[in-house]
Amino acid sequence: MISEFHELTEKIDRLAEMASALRRENAALRMHVTTLEAEGSELSRRMAEAQRRIAALLEKLPAPAPATQPDEETA
User: Fold this and answer.
1) Angle CA(29)–CA(32)–CA(37) in degrees, nearest 5?
2) How distant, in Å, are the alpha carbons of 10, 13, 20 from that of 7?
3) Tens-binned pLDDT, residue by residue, of the chain (75 aa)
4) What is the DSSP letter of 64?
5) Which long-range contacts (CB under 8 A, 24 or more apart) does 26-34 make?
6) Residue 7 dihedral angles phi and psi, to the nearest 5°
7) Other C-beta atoms within 10 Å of 60: how many?
């Protein structure tokens, strides 16, 4: 009977250690998710800024000249 209590105690200790390790891992993963979300937001902001700058540059370009077709007589 004492050995059964000893085994149960060991199992409870292992369970407590595992729960503690999982809590630490969960906290680390949550921090990682927060970091990745911040990076994603920053990248989205930078993409929007790049799109705005490209649109502004495109508006500054001169309109293309109308396409001319070669004379049929010179062909």
Assistant:
1) 125
2) 5, 10, 20
3) 889 999 999 999 999 999 999 999 999 999 999 999 999 999 999 999 999 999 999 999 988 888 877 765 555
4) P
5) none
6) -65, -45
7) 6
d(CA 25, CA 67): 64
Global pTM reads: 0.63
Residue 23: HSE in the Cβ half-sphere, 13 Å Cα cutoff: 6
Tokens representing residue 32 in the block: 């990682």
- Dihedral sign for Cα 40, 44, 49, 55, please: positive
Q: How far apart are CA 8 and CA 12, in angstroms?
A: 6
Angle at 38 between CA 34 and CA 41, to 5 degrees: 140
